[in-house]
Structures are given as structure tokens and as C-alpha cells.
């Protein structure tokens, strides 16, 4: 069985140094084929995403090698620990998708055994009771360059030590008067080995053992012995415990017979724009900087769960980050990328207007309505999602987004303006004829428009080209909702890196939460289960807040936006600070109604977009060649005006696009890749700063268009190869990245996914056919996105309907 469990490990996850150690122990039979790991949280706070890495590693190892993983609460500090944390930790681990079965343990269950080990160490001459004060103990310990001095109490006899230790336990002494110490070496190079403390006196009530004990074991004593008591084989902890390993080994050598557990250290997970220390998280909660441990801005698992983050995306992050031996920070954008990828598959699309502006269609009959139909899934997912649609009531009054209207817009504002036309998503083309203003404030409060009945689905003018499409909701039928826009809790990537005299609290982002209480949502939202994650078109991914949302008073959390608006806003801020382009807007360009909250403007990309539009427009005005290309791209190549605009803001980008087109003649497709992926790669720079060859880009797009690789894989490759000079065709061949189009190869993967999710299979068979996408997503993940999705869908369906 060793061989088979090993090969599962190799198939399902990439190997790492810890998996290699475990595999080697399996080969050698060190623990007779047993693998026992543990996750040992201290119940003094909620779990955070860093803990998730340790959970995925410990439980994942047990799964991969056919072993078990214990959940052990390391409850040896009565001052800070609490049953409430014990409960939240269990809930969070289950939510992440792991199960300890009956193996729930507490270090406090072992207090009697641990005490007996203390007595044994004293008897064997390996421990003594010291009566120096804390300060003296510190002074006697020496420094890194200087050996320590032995305590005058080090020479106590075994009998004296046994007596004092028993009286410590009996409660005869006050806190701090005596400690039990290991007798090792006061001159050891590793300071931790200079007679480490094993027990201290604390007259404190413990949440589990009550007042039974007034001496409590130290981590370095309790942890290794708890591992040994539970028969743990591989005790995995984070790098800061590297120096504690010597004590771990010393203690277990003195008390255990082999085989005994061994400790291995791996790098902590640190994520940008957040803090991970429980002490700091507790401070944020206590001082009211957030609304609780489960505040959706917190990096806690409870906060992320409430926000709407999926456990799958956290597990994927942990796998992608891998297990290493050096500490590093993980870019938040990696996590966001994984999260968007996951949500994209599971989130049906609806429309929600965050800051409504009323529109009256003056030529639509009063009192009449009709039902429009809208796709729930975008075209590239339609094959997975069966082309499901929802109905959207349409009538005389609607709401649109305030920022989708401008009174005096620049030439390339493609949304609504007086006298201009725009298409309503899934609906008609409308033209704005009049603007109604508040007589007091002058703010635009209503638009009078006319609609063109021939531009609806099936209408003779349905295909008429209009420059922009905007989202909207019907006025009467839409649901009033509160929307909470969450942003990063800290402004800097590393909030712990602060100037003299400041603390991490100075780096809190004042705009991390914006509440919009007037938002309006499409009525179709009522037809979905309460825990559905939606994409609100053009806005981001949202779900109903599990705590505050009620069927009648709905509250939606933004899980994540669609694009990295933060990065863009920072870029343009930096630009304006450098003076390269003044950010001041012409007064006439202000959106219809100004939001008082500065974040409101930052979260809507229009402010930023407009200034970039200006830059490109100026470039075309100055360079007739660019102006000519602009017209050519639209009229001859048939590109959407928005894409033509982006491509012709700078001659370098236009030439890059054309060179790629020469390799792969599919204008809109290449344009999409350039305007989305390439621009993301060059991050505000230009293609001149060392870009990947446009020939390679053309080849890459061709690979995707021809179905040799999936679009997602294509994007990953572009990111990876961008700074290289590698040919994507060669990379795809050498690494065997072609899509798996072979049903025989995919069938077992599909079968495995179904076998792992019996509850979801049952739900599907009970009518929740929307789960099809979930199964397909899982298969795609297992094949690293290499499976041919339409084929996977067919296979899933046929296996489910068998
Ligand atoms: P903090 O330092 O935030 O207070 P902790 O390490 O004291 O956390 P524990 O409850 O003792 O919290 O942690 C339980 C387990 O989780 C330990 O094995 C610890 O090494 C691991 N762990 C804690 N933080 C991280 C992290 N950022 N990345 C990976 N593992 C972590
Ligand atoms: Mg700890």
C-alpha cells in the first residue's frame, strides 16, 4: 500500500521537501507505514489565512499518505484562552474542508501525564527547581556572545527538587517564586538550550481544567510531549521554531523510546496589505478598528467566509504558494487572481445599480411592462452553464449608474450624455433628450430618454452599432439593497514596516469600507439560494452578508472587484504626484451627481479612465498616423471603438498589435489580448520596455483560438513568459500542455470528482442542475485547466445521469 499512497501524493499535489521526508520515512518503514500529523492552534484568537497554510499542509499530508491528522488545542496559557476560540477554530477548519474525525485533543488533557514527565526528568537529574526571579533568570542566561552562568539553585538535590515541585503543584507558592527548568548547558551556543523553563506558577483559572492546576507547562515542554503522547510522526511548524528543535529532540530523547516524532519547519505565509499576528488582529477587534473577528476585511478565515471568499480559493492559494524553507510575502494580487478565477465559474451574472440615477422613457406607454431575457453566464462559459437565462422586467422607468451619465462629456465618453445613445444591457438603445435638475443644488436627478423599439432582441435594428453598453435595473421591480464595498484594510503592502514613532495602525486604509444604502438589484436575485455568489455586471463579485442580510432587507458584500482598480488608482496617483499628467479634471466632466466619499470615485474606474482617455486623445490629435490607425481599426478591422481607442493611444502599442496580427490574423481576438493581458503585464509602462516578441503573442493567441490550450492557461503562460524570449508553441509541446481532448483520459478524473462530492451529486440529482458548473470547475482544476471544457461537461452530464 505504500507504493499506491505515494503515487497519489505525487499525482494530486506537487512534492515539496516535507513530502519528500515523509515519503522517505514510508520507504524506510520508520513508523511502520504510519503518518500522523497534527494542527496545534492556541485557542487565543481566530484562525487567519496563514493558519490555512498549516492546516492544508498537515491535513493534506495525512490525506496524501493515508494517515491521520489530529486537531490539538495547545491550551497552556490560561490568561488568554477561551472556549469561544475553540469553537470558532473548529468551525473554520471544517469550512476549509478538513476533518479530524474523533481526533480532537487538548494539551490540558495531558496535564497529569506531563507532570509525571517533569517528575521523571527530576529523578533522572535532568531538571531542577530554580528560585531566581524572572529578571535574574534573564541576566544569568548571558548573551549570544557570552555564555550564561549557572543559577545557584542548579545544584539542588533530587529530593529537594521533588519536594519543591510537589509543593509548587500543591499551591504553596506565589506566582513567579519558582520555576522548573531543564538542566542542559548554560554555555550552549543556542540560547534556547541554556536550561529552558519547563513549568511556571500561575494561579489562574483555566477554561477547561478550572482551578485544578496552578502550575502550567511551557510550550517547549508541552508541545513535544503532547506530540509523543499522541503518536505523532511528523511535527510540522513554522520557521521561527527552528531553534526550538534542539529542545524538542533533547526532551524526547530523554523521555521516549524510538521511533519518536521529529520536528520540521516551513515558511509562514505572509500576505500583502494585511497583518497576521493574532496579537495585532486582537488589537484591531478590541479597539474597534474593525467590527469583530469576522469583519469581512479581516484576514481571518471567519472574516473571509463572511465576505464570500470560497474555501476552494484559499486551498488553491496554499497549494500555489507551496511549502518552502524561506519566508516571503505573497502578493495579494495572486490571491485575487485565484479568487476571481474561482468565482467566475460559479457566479451567475446579474445587474445591480450601486448609485442610482432615474431614467424615464418618455415614449414608453405608461403602466405597461414587458419581460426581457438576459444570459446568466457570459458566452465563454455558456457551454458549461447550459445557456441559462433570467427575465428582466422592462418598463417606462429605470435606474442607471450615476457615473454612466455625463452632462458635458469628452468625445470618447461612450456612455450616456445629452443627445447621445447608449445600449441598455440585454435591452434597447436609448437616447437622452433632457436632464432634470434639482432646483436648489443643480444636481442631475433624472433623465428623460426615448427608446428605440426596433433595437430589442429580434428587432430589425437589433444589431445596430452603438458605442457603449451600460447596466440598469427596472425602477419599480428592482430590489432596494445595501451594498458594502470592501477594500484593503491597510494602504501599504507591508503594514508592519512602519517609520519611527508610528504603528501598524497608522497604515489603516480609511476607505476600507464604503456603504451604499440606495443600491437597486434585479428582481431575479430572489430566485437564487441566499448563499449564491453573483457577478454584478461591471461591478464585481458579491454575495448576501450571512449575518446582516434578511430576505426583506438585503445586504450585499463585495467579495472582490472585477479588475485591479486599486493598482490603477495608485498608478494614476503616482503619475499625478510626479507631475507627468495633472489629475485635475475639467469641471464640465464631473459625473452627474458627486459622491461625497472619496472612495466612491476611486472605486469607480471612470474618473481614472477619463484622464487616460484624454492622454490617448491628445496623442491622436498630435499624430495623424495614430488618428488614421484609429479609423482603420474600427472601419476595416472591425474592432470595437473602445479597443481601437486603447490601441492607438501610443504608437508602440499599435505597432505591437499589428505585428502580432501579422502572425495570427484575428483582429478582435488579438486586440482583446493586447488590451487586457499585455497592458496588465506592462503595468503602466510601454511595450518598448522589454516586451515579449509580438510574434510570440500572435502564436499564443492562435494556440488559444485553435483550442490547443485553454484561455486560462494562455493567460498564465503569457504572465510567465512575458519577461523571457521563449516561444509558446515550443513551451506547450515540451511541457505537454495541450488540452486533454481524450475522453478516456478524462473519464477517471470526472469519476473521482463525483466520488469526492457525494452530497453535491445527490443535490444535482435532486434538481440542482446549476451544480454542473461546480463539477466541471473541479475537473478543470484537477487537470490544471488542461481539459477541454465542453468535453468535460458532456462527460460530467453523462456520468451524473447514468
Ligand atoms: P500568531 O503568531 O499569529 O499569534 P501563532 O503561530 O501563535 O499565531 P498558533 O495558534 O500557535 O498561532 O498556530 C497554530 C499553527 O499554525 C502553528 O503550527 C503555527 O506554526 C501555524 N501558523 C501560524 N501562523 C502561520 C502562518 N502565517 N503561516 C503558516 N503557518 C502558520
Ligand atoms: Mg504559537
Structural features, described:
The structure is a single chain. With 802 residues, this protein is of the alpha/beta class. Helices cover 40% and strands 17% of the residues. The protein has a 7-stranded mixed sheet with strand order 12-27-28-29-25-26-13, covered by helices on one side. Strand 1, helix 3 and strand 2 form a beta-alpha-beta unit. Helix 17 (606-622) crosses helix 18 (624-635) and helix 18 (624-635) packs antiparallel against helix 19. Mean pLDDT is 88; it is low at 1-12 and 575-610. The protein binds adenosine-5'-triphosphate and magnesium ion.
Layout: helices, strands, pairs:
Blueprint: H1 2-12, H2 17-28, E1 36-39, H3 49-64, E2 68-73, H4 83-96, E3 104-106, H5 111-123, E4 127-130, H6 134-140, H7 158-170, E5 179-182, E6 197-201, E7 215-217, H8 219-230, E8 234-238, H9 245-255, E9 262-266, E10 269-271, H10 278-286, H11 301-307, H12 311-321, E11 328-330, H13 332-346, E12 349-350, E13 352-353, E14 356-361, E15 369-375, H14 379-385, E16 389-395, E17 397-401, E18 405-406, E19 416-417, E20 421-424, E21 429-437, E22 444-452, E23 469-470, E24 472-474, E25 479-486, E26 513-521, E27 534-536, E28 540-544, E29 554-560, H15 565-578, H16 598-603, H17 606-622, H18 624-635, H19 641-647, H20 651-663, H21 667-682, H22 694-705, H23 711-721, H24 728-734, H25 743-756, H26 758-765, H27 772-782, H28 789-800
Parallel strand pairs: 1-2, 2-3, 8-9, 10-11, 12-27, 14-22, 18-19, 20-23, 25-29
Antiparallel strand pairs: 4-5, 5-6, 6-7, 13-26, 14-17, 15-16, 17-24, 20-21, 21-22, 25-26, 27-28, 28-29
Helix pairs in contact: 3-12, 8-9, 12-13, 17-18, 18-19, 19-21, 20-21, 20-22, 25-27, 25-28, 27-28
Bound molecules: adenosine-5'-triphosphate and magnesium ion (MG).
The site of adenosine-5'-triphosphate (ATP) has 14 residues, from helix 3 and strand 8.
Amino acid at each position: 500500500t505504500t507504493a499506491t499512497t505515494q503515487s497519489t501524493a505525487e499525482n494530486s499535489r506537487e512534492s515539496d521537501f516535507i513530502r519528500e521526508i515523509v515519503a522517505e520515512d514510508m520507504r524506510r518503514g520508520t513508523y511502520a507505514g504510519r503518518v500522523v500529523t497534527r494542527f496545534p492552534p492556541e485557542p487565543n484568537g481566530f484562525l487567519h489565512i496563514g493558519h490555512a497554510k498549516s492546516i492544508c499542509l498537515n491535513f493534506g499530508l495525512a490525506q496524501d499518505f493515508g494517515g491521520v491528522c489530529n486537531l490539538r488545542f495547545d491550551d497552556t496559557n490560561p490568561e488568554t484562552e477561551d472556549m469561544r476560540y475553540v469553537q470558532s477554530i473548529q468551525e473554520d477548519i471544517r469550512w476549509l474542508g478538513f476533518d479530524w474525525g474523533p481526533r480532537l485533543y487538548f494539551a490540558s488533557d495531558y496535564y497529569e501525564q506531563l507532570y509525571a514527565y517533569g517528575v521523571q526528568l527530576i529523578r533522572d537529574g535532568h531538571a531542577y527547581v530554580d528560585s531566581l526571579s524572572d529578571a535574574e533568570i534573564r541576566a544569568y542566561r548571558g548573551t549570544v556572545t557570552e555564555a550564561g552562568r549557572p543559577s545557584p539553585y542548579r545544584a539542588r538535590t533530587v529530593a529537594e527538587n521533588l519536594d519543591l515541585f510537589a509543593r509548587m503543584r500543591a499551591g504553596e507558592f506565589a506566582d513567579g517564586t519558582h520555576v522548573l527548568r531543564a538542566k542542559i548547558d548554560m554555555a550552549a551556543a543556542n540560547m534556547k538550550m541554556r536550561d529552558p523553563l519547563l513549568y511556571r506558577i500561575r494561579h489562574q483559572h483555566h477554561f477547561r481544567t478550572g482551578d485544578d492546576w496552578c502550575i502550567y507547562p511551557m510550550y517547549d515542554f508541552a508541545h513535544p510531549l503532547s506530540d509523543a503522547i499522541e503518536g505523532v510522526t511528523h511535527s510540522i511548524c513554522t520557521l521561527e521554531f527552528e531553534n526550538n528543535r534542539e529542545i524538542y529532540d533533547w526532551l524526547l530523547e530523554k523521555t521516549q523510546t524510538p521511533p519518536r516524532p521529529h520536528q520540521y519547519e516551513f515558511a509562514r505565509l505572509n500576505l500583502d496589505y494585511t497583518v497576521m499576528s493574532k496579537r495585532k488582529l486582537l488589537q484591531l477587534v478590541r479597539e474597534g478598528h474593525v467590527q469583530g473577528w469576522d469583519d469581512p476585511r479581516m484576514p481571518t478565515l471567519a472574516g473571509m467566509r463572511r465576505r464570500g471568499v470560497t474555501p476552494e480559493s484559499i486551498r488553491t492559494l496554499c497549494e500555489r504558494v507551496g511549502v518552502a524553507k524561506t519566508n516571503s510575502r505573497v502578493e495579494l494580487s495572486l490571491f485575487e487572481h485565484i479568487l476571481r478565477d474561482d468565482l467566475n465559474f460559479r457566479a451567475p451574472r446579474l445587474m445591480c445599480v450601486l448609485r442610482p440615477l432615474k431614467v424615464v422613457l418618455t415614449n414608453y406607454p405608461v403602466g405597461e411592462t414587458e419581460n426581457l431575457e438576459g444570459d446568466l453566464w457570459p458566452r465563454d462559459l455558456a457551454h458549461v452553464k447550459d445557456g441559462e437565462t433570467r427575465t428582466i422586467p422592462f418598463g417606462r422607468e429605470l435606474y442607471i449608474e450615476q457615473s454612466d451619465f455625463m452632462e458635458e462629456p469628452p468625445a470618447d465618453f461612450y456612455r450616456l450624455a445629452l443627445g447621445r445613445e447608449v445600449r441598455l444591457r440585454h435591452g434597447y438603445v436609448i437616447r437622452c433628450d433632457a436632464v432634470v435638475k434639482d432646483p436648489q443644488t443643480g444636481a442631475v436627478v433624472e433623465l428623460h430618454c426615448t427608446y428605440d423599439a426596433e433595437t430589442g432582441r429580434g428587432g430589425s435594428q437589433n444589431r445596430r452599432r452603438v458605442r457603449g453598453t451600460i447596466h440598469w435595473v427596472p425602477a419599480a421591480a428592482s430590489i432596494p439593497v445595501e451594498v458594502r464595498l470592501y477594500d484593503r484594510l491597510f494602504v501599504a503592502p507591508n503594514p508592519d514596516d512602519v517609520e519611527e514613532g508610528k504603528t501598524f495602525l497608522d497604515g489603516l486604509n480609511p476607505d476600507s469600507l464604503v456603504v451604499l444604502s440606495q443600491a437597486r438589484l434585479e428582481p431575479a436575485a430572489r430566485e437564487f439560494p441566499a448563499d449564491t455568489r453573483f457577478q454584478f455586471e461591471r461591478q464585481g463579485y458579491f454575495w448576501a452578508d450571512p449575518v446582516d442580510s434578511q430576505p426583506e432587507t438585503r445586504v450585499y458584500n463585495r467579495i472582490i472587484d472585477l479588475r485591479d482598480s486599486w493598482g490603477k488608482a495608485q498608478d494614476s496617483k503616482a503619475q499625478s504626484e510626479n507631475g507627468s499628467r495633472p489629475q485635475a479634471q475639467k469641471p464640465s466632466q464631473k459625473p452627474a451627481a458627486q459622491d461625497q466619499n472619496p472612495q466612491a470615485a476611486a472605486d469607480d474606474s471612470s474618473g481614472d479612465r477619463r484622464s487616460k482617455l484624454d492622454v490617448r486623445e491628445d496623442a491622436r490629435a498630435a499624430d495623424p498616423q495614430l488618428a488614421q490607425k484609429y479609423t482603420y481599426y474600427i472601419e476595416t478591422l472591425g474592432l470595437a471603438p473602445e479597443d481601437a481607442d486603447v490601441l492607438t493611444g501610443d504608437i508602440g502599442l499599435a505597432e505591437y498589435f499589428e505585428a502580432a496580427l501579422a502572425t495570427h490574423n484575428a483582429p478582435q481576438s488579438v486586440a482583446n489580448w493586447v488590451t487586457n493581458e499585455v497592458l496588465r503585464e506592462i503595468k503602466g509602462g510601454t511595450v518598448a520596455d522589454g516586451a515579449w516578441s509580438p510574434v510570440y503573442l500572435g502564436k499564443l493567441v492562435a494556440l488559444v483560438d485553435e483550442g490547443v490550450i485553454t484561455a486560462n492557461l494562455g493567460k498564465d503562460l503569457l504572465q510567465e513568459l512575458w519577461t523571457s524570449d521563449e516561444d509558446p508553441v515550443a513551451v506547450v509541446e515540451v511541457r505537454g500542455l495541450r488540452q486533454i481532448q481524450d475522453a478516456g483520459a478524462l473519464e477517471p478524473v470526472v469519476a473521482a470528482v463525483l466520488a469526492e462530492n457525494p452530497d453535491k451529486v445527490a443535490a444535482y440529482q435532486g434538481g440542482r442542475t446549476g451544480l454542473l458548473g461546480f463539477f466541471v470547475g473541479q475537473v478543470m482544476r484537477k487537470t490544471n485547466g488542461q481539459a477541454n471544457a465542453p468535453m468535460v461537461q458532456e462527460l460530467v452530464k453523462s456520468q451524473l445521469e447514468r
